[in-house]
Structures are given as structure tokens and as C-alpha cells.
Design a protein that fits this description.
By secondary structure, the protein is mainly beta. The chain is built from two helices and six strands, in the order ββαββββα.
């Protein structure tokens, strides 16, 4: 995963299906992503995101809110980062697109960044 941060805009590229599986948070209302990062963010802070998934040339734009923080010294050696909830995806377009890419992975018992 590549994260570029410019003020209130974060650009994300998830180019690997395994990484997308580890990052996706399907249990969050409207869906969300865990972003592995060493940067510090506050809970409820909103950002504008540009997301590119796998080999798709289209970038998905959305507003996301920080709803989860995993600090650097977390238990069980969890990856440091933040959980982002999709805020303006009321029709579930982003969630559906991610789940289409992850068909066959959603019920997989491989570990993710959050569970």
C-alpha cells in the first residue's frame, strides 16, 4: 500500500489483492479501510481520499473519517495505522467494488490488520 498525504487529501494505492483483504473492514457501517501508517491522526478527523485499487486505472474519490487508531506499541504486535470509515458512500459503491475484487476472500480466515 502506498499512502501519500497532502494536507487534507490522502492518495492511496492498493495494488495487491492480499493487501486489500488485510486492509478492508467490512463490519464498519458503509465499509472502511485500515491504512498502515506511522503518521498521527485524530479520531473523527475527516479527509478526502483518492483510492486506486489493484490494476484499475480509475481512482475512487471519497470522504473518510478516522474511527480507529492502532498505536505503534499495540498489543499482539498489530500494524500501526488508522481505520477509515467511508462517509459519502450511501449507495455502497466503494464497498461493492472492493467486495467484487475480494470475491472468494471475504470468508477467508487469513489474518487482517484489524482482526
Amino acid at each position: 500500500m502506498v499512502v501519500q498525504h497532502d494536507s487534507e487529501i490522502l492518495s492511496l494505492v492498493i495494488s495487491d489483492q492480499d493487501e486489500l483483504h488485510r486492509s478492508y473492514m467490512p463490519l464498519i457501517i458503509d465499509g472502511g479501510l485500515f491504512i498502515a501508517t506511522q503518521e498521527t491522526f485524530a479520531l473523527n478527523h475527516e479527509f478526502f481520499f483518492l483510492l486506486r485499487l489493484l490494476n484499475d486505472s480509475e481512482r475512487i474519490s471519497f470522504t473518510g473519517k478516522v474511527i480507529w487508531i492502532t498505536p505503534s506499541n499495540s498489543e499482539n504486535y498489530r500494524e500501526q495505522g488508522v481505520g477509515i470509515q467511508f462517509c459519502n458512500d450511501s449507495n455502497g459503491i466503494i464497498k461493492k467494488k472492493i467486495e467484487k475484487y475480494l470475491s472468494g476472500y471475504l470468508n477467508c480466515e487469513r489474518a487482517t490488520y484489524t482482526m
